[in-house]
Amino acid sequence: MAARGVSRRVFEVFVRRIPWNVEESELREYFTQFGPVKKCILPFNSETGFHKGFGWIGFATEESRNNALLKDHMFEGSQLEVKRQEKTR
């Protein structure tokens, strides 16, 4: 059971075109400019040792997610593609 006043809901975006040299912590830090980030998932390829170039950012509020969706994202020299995550994974 969730503590009173604490929301378990997460408002996610799906991020594509993440440069290979970006770490999860850097991606999380970048997206905190739009609001509190509850989670950052950057899946790795076990064969290459690098992430797969896509991931998910989970915001604490819908407003934070919407703010992130309104902006074009240039990060580490790449134009990120940020889309609303419609379904729960």
From TrEMBL:
Residues of the RRM domain: 11-87
GO biological process: flagellated sperm motility; mitochondrial mRNA polyadenylation; mitochondrion organization; negative regulation of mitochondrial mRNA catabolic process; single fertilization; spermatid development
SUPFAM superfamilies: RNA-binding domain, RBD
Keywords: RNA-binding
Single GO MF descriptor: mRNA binding
GO CC annotations, alphabetized: acrosomal vesicle; mitochondrial matrix; perinuclear region of cytoplasm; ribonucleoprotein complex; sperm flagellum
Alphabetical list of InterPro entries matching this protein: Nucleotide-bd_a/b_plait_sf, RBD_domain_sf, RRM_dom, SLIRP/GR-RBP-like
Name by which UniProt lists this protein: SRA stem-loop-interacting RNA-binding protein, mitochondrial
Gene: SLIRP
